[in-house]
Amino acid sequence: MPSTHDKKEIMDESTAVKSTAVKQPLNVEQPHSARIYDYFLGGKDNFPADREAAEEILAVEPDASFIARTNRAFVARTTRWLVGEVGVRQFLDVGTGIPTSPNLHEIAQGIAPETRVVYVDNDRIVLVHARALLTSTPQGRTAYLDADLRDPQSIINASELRETLDLEKPVALSLNAILHFVADDDEVAGIVAGLVAGLPTRSYLVLSHITPEMNPATAEQVTRRYEDAGIPLKARTAAQISGIVEAAGCTLEEPGVVPIALWRPEEEPDVAQRAVWLLGAVARVS
Predict the structure, then answer these.
(1) Whether this model's pTM surpasses 0.85
(2) What is the chain's mean pLDDT, rounded?
(3) Residue 78 and residue 104 in contact, taking contact as beta carbons nearer than 8 Å
(4) Is pLDDT above 80 for 5?
(5) Residues sharing a CB contact under 8 Å with residue 186, sequence separation 6 or more, in sequence order
(6) pLDDT digit string, tens, across residues 270-279
(7) Domain range holding 150?
(8) What is the per-residue pLDDT across 23-65, written as a single tens digit (0 to 9) for each?
(9) For residue 258, is it within any domain?
(10) Strand 278-285 relative to strand 250-252: parallel, antiparallel, unpaired?
């Protein structure tokens, strides 16, 4: 639990980054998905409530940390493909979470220093670390937007986004390990469609999502643990994810919606990686 001095420092730093942060109170008694994920990755930016919830999840899925690391590898791999092979130079990362190096912009700018990235999240702890996210190459640019996934128009119309990205040129929209925290199917479809509608043609959508298909019993237990912690969660099938992507006007790139370790692997994934029950996909905006 942070001291009074630590809490003041968090508030001061948050306010310095964006004044509207005061509208988002820091409730350390309530577990948060970004801070639980940080715990799985071995991070330090979490609180007792987050650690308790994470341990409850680990009790039913001991591989949760391995799954989180495998998802990070998927993010890195898709970013390298988009920058190195497709030529994308702009990214919109929604639900970015607490910074974990290498961050998306570090990967992208390591290949093309001129790449521009806008990170989007609405958690105060993430906001505290926005300065780290804002460290760009001199040729490129990064920005942080304090906004809610559930309000896609506020993201697309935000001045921070429009001052950083050129919406006349392709943008890669990253929705990694975030959509399963929206339980309503229609709302998820609306979020994806709303964000994609704000992007130019030849843009790309990247997502990863929990699925019940590979391990139904564990998926059900993990869902229950998140819900017990006050965090909605819904696992979706490959068919459901494909439907959401296609309804947004996107065309799936090969190999389609697959377990994340099987999306264009740079080396042969082992048995444990193949068993990770997150699906991943990259799609082109038509």
Answers:
(1) yes
(2) 90
(3) no
(4) no
(5) none
(6) 999 999 999 9
(7) 66-214+230-285
(8) 456 778 899 999 999 999 999 989 999 999 999 999 999 999 9
(9) yes
(10) antiparallel
The answer to whether residue 209 sits within a structural domain is yes
Burial 2-24 (b: 16+ CB within 10 A, else e): eeeeeeeebbebbeebbeebeee
The position carrying tokens 């264009």 is 264
Strands 258-259 and 278-285 turn out to be antiparallel
* Omega before residue 170 within 30° of 0, cis: no
Hey, what are 179's tokens? Answer: 């959509």
Burial letters 62-86, b for 16+ CB under 10 A, else e:
ebbbebbbbbbbbbbbbbbbbbeee
257 with 131, same domain: the answer is yes
Residue at 114: amino acid letter: E
Residues 164-177 have pLDDT tens digits of 999 999 999 999 99
Tokens of 166: 């050129």
